[in-house]
Amino acid sequence: MRLSLLISLALGLIVSTVRAAADNDTRGPFNPDGWFGRTTDVCIIGGGASGTYAAVRLKDMGKTVTVIEAKSTLGGHTETWTDPASGQTVELGVETWHVTNASMRFVDRFGIEVEYGLAPNTRDMLFVDYQTGRNMVGGVGYSLNDILAAQANYAVQRAKYVNLSSGYYLDSPVPEDFTLSFLDFAKKYQLEAILYFFYLQQQGGSDFLRQPALYVLKEFDLDRVVRSANNVTMRAKGQMHQIYDLALQELGDDVLLDSHAVGFLQNRRSNNKPSILVHVENSSSHELIMAEALLITAPLTIDNLRGLYPDPQETSLLGKFVPHYYYTGLVNSTGLPTNAEYNFAATGTEFHIPEVPGLYWLRSTNITGVFDFKYGHNTTDISRQAIQDDISAKVHAMHTSGDFNTTGDYNPQIIAFASHSPFGMQVSADDIKDGFYQQLYAEQGQRNTYFTGAAVAGHDSGELWDFTEAVVSKIAAAL
Ligand SMILES: Cc1cc2nc3c(=O)[nH]c(=O)nc-3n(C[C@H](O)[C@H](O)[C@H](O)COP(=O)(O)OP(=O)(O)OC[C@H]3O[C@@H](n4cnc5c(N)ncnc54)[C@H](O)[C@@H]3O)c2cc1C
Ligand SMILES: *[C@@H]1O[C@H](CO)[C@@H](O)[C@H](O)[C@H]1NC(C)=O
Ligand SMILES: *[C@@H]1O[C@H](CO)[C@@H](O)[C@H](O)[C@H]1NC(C)=O
Ligand SMILES: *[C@@H]1O[C@H](CO)[C@@H](O)[C@H](O)[C@H]1NC(C)=O
Ligand SMILES: *[C@@H]1O[C@H](CO)[C@@H](O)[C@H](O)[C@H]1NC(C)=O
Ligand SMILES: *[C@@H]1O[C@H](CO)[C@@H](O)[C@H](O)[C@H]1NC(C)=O
Ligand SMILES: *[C@@H]1O[C@H](CO)[C@@H](O)[C@H](O)[C@H]1NC(C)=O
Ligand SMILES: *[C@@H]1O[C@H](CO)[C@@H](O)[C@H](O)[C@H]1NC(C)=O
Ligand SMILES: *[C@@H]1O[C@H](CO)[C@@H](O)[C@H](O)[C@H]1NC(C)=O
Ligand SMILES: *[C@@H]1O[C@H](CO)[C@@H](O)[C@H](O)[C@H]1NC(C)=O
């Protein structure tokens, strides 16, 4: 590797990335000598589900790794909240793992005890008009038989695309059905009766009916459609986050928490083994990490890829991703009867699907009086306060409608809040048709840079770990 070339390029990188923050810089004068930190085989950006899995597997294969994680813990969308009063826990994020080869290997690796199937649910399922706060007594207008028939119709279509479970492996030309809006796809195959229920399960802020059908087909594979009837889902007997706590203990100093990768530099001129410099910063210092390979698991936003793609062609490829916005949390003091889930729906819209931004549900938890909520938007980030105001207004409407057995005073307060944004990275139907995923997958391994994570392989931890397993095998073989 050509260290001198990298260092001189690095100075340019540092100057440009530091300049932006110079006004508030409390880290003292710039001294490049002090900046060269570790060298590592693989630098992994993002320590969520896929980044943590990759780090553990690569280490087990004898490689050195460094994980850069923005938050103060590993686990990403997996978030176990502990009630300070009772010590009881609530899962605010990931609640189940799809049973796959990689998920079995990962839970066994850390000795996590699992239970199979979905968590028992004894809550009453109620539907609330999101505008009036009234009880939609007839539900969302379809009988159980309608729903089962639509589900069977869906299964026939999904069975054509077995490969989608492994990733966005699309044939060329891309099947026309993938680029229909999901609404048109549903009309074509008589899926109307399941639309609301898919909307409720997919969540994450997309404009559900108008997204390309590909994304719904990707998310709902055959296992998911029939999961309550089969042994295809598992969950930790204790807390879902425990696996990440154990991984962090093992990875130790190989993880940099509260840290961001603010720029990348690649030695593109070297013939065989290009090295990559990663400029990492936390609130008190900078570090330059030299890696043989880079694995990006964080959402593929332009901000997360700064410096990686000097080539405008490639920047424009990744720039096509459109993020959505997704929030979860807990709310108390609602005055609503417990042991119920209040699913928000619409009386006057197509298939009862509310507009975004919106509240998906308020669902009672095991902690008396505490409900969990899920909230989404398709175009911009929303503040905690705006979500608080919307939830307060909706609970107020439910009280004044008189349709629910509400009690006494209420003053709903968000007591836990997490943003899972950016979420559900999608591209347009035209981009899918034009071969976006074929081009993205062709980038895998170019210039020793690899990709995994939900944007690349979908929002299912079990499938994502299978995909990541293939990527880390490829990395290990190339090093
Ligand atoms: C509320 C919710 C519930 C879900 N429930 C389930 C479920 O029950 N089962 C299931 O299989 N899937 C579920 N999912 C889907 C989930 O997205 C995937 O299962 C999986 O966790 C995604 O893993 P990932 O590695 O792509 O992303 P994440 O786990 O989000 O990891 C990405 C990590 O990158 C970090 N990061 C971002 N930017 C940077 C940066 N610039 N520098 C450093 N680090 C950065 C983030 O902090 C994060 O830790 C759920 C998702 C959400 C939001
Ligand atoms: C500096 O800090 C102030 C106050 O915290 C903030 O408003 C401003 O955006 C910061 N400027 C930069 C360049 O980060
Ligand atoms: C899972 O393991 C089985 C048995 O080893 C193998 O046949 C199958 O291809 C694996 N599946 C994936 C997705 O790796
Ligand atoms: C199907 O998926 C496998 C990976 O599981 C991939 O290697 C193969 O190319 C895919 N097929 C098509 C048609 O894309
Ligand atoms: C589910 O699968 C696991 C692992 O194969 C097995 O131990 C368990 O008994 C199965 N459970 C049921 C209900 O079939
Ligand atoms: C920032 O990173 C440096 C170097 O890795 C580390 O020593 C320091 O403790 C970190 N600071 C914070 C606040 O995390
Ligand atoms: C709800 O949470 C708020 C804020 O934490 C707290 O002040 C209040 O006592 C809680 N109310 C109930 C009924 O638990
Ligand atoms: C966001 O979703 C709403 C429907 O809820 C839709 O009317 C609007 O066009 C969408 N906006 C974008 C930019 O997709
Ligand atoms: C919640 O309570 C139910 C019923 O008592 C129990 O089966 C379940 O395990 C509990 N969940 C958690 C996360 O404690
Ligand atoms: C309100 O309480 C009555 C009497 O217990 C019950 O029959 C009814 O189903 C409840 N309504 C709702 C919306 O929970």
From TrEMBL:
Any single GO molecular-function term of the entry would be: oxidoreductase activity
What is the organism field in this record? Lophium mytilinum
The alphabetized UniProt keywords are: Signal
Please state what the protein is called: FAD/NAD(P)-binding domain-containing protein
What does UniProt give as the signal peptide span? 1-20
PANTHER family associated with the record: FMN REDUCTASE LOT6, PUTATIVE (AFU_ORTHOLOGUE AFUA_7G06600)-RELATED, PROTOPORPHYRINOGEN OXIDASE
